[in-house]
Design goal:
Helix content: 25-40%
Mean pLDDT: 95
Shape: globular
Radius of gyration: 16 Å
Number of strands: 7
CATH class: Alpha Beta
Number of helices: 8
Structural class: alpha/beta
CATH architecture: 3-Layer(aba) Sandwich
CATH topology: Rossmann fold
Number of domains: 1
Amino acid sequence: MSVRMRKKKNLIPRLEACEALLEREPAGRKGAWRALFPGKERLALEIGCGKGKFTAGTAQGEPEQALVALERVPEALVMAVEKARDLSLSNVRYIIGDADDLREYFAEGELDRIYVNFCDPWPKKKQAKRRLVHREYLAVYASLLKPGGEVIFKTDNAPLFDFALEEAAAASFGILGVTRDLAGSGIPNVTTEYEEKFMALGNPIHRAVFRRG
């Protein structure tokens, strides 16, 4: 999830120090991301990685998977990429970019999995098309996923979750593993920074998997 943040001192040199994990020209990798990660079983995308807790934890916990993390706010992404560098992770890369440009970055059928965690709910009805689980975004995800590929969605926002289930059905995704209490479900889970804050407030976390037919 993208966040509003104050400008960070030394942002440019900090990013340059992590250059090996950054993809400055992601469009040039379109259709060829797997070449960066030889031997990996899956290629996944995280949309809106924020400060990168989920990214790093997932990359550590699933070494057989390659993960590309997208974030449009450089002040957040620099913290994410520094986490990966400090952990010496080799199965993750980062893009400073926007979800509206995904078709420029990835080829059709290139991805096995897409993570959408705690995206902005855009609560007003007229803002619905800006939600990252609107059917128009889901159609883009479907085009980038292999047959059988999955979108894994988490949120603490119940109305957004209900909306996402409706949109996924409308976009012809199969809907699996729906839970409205992730902590109590027994499903293995890597948390995000936002997720931990919401859980501390007692907010239940909702999760679903949308599978491309």
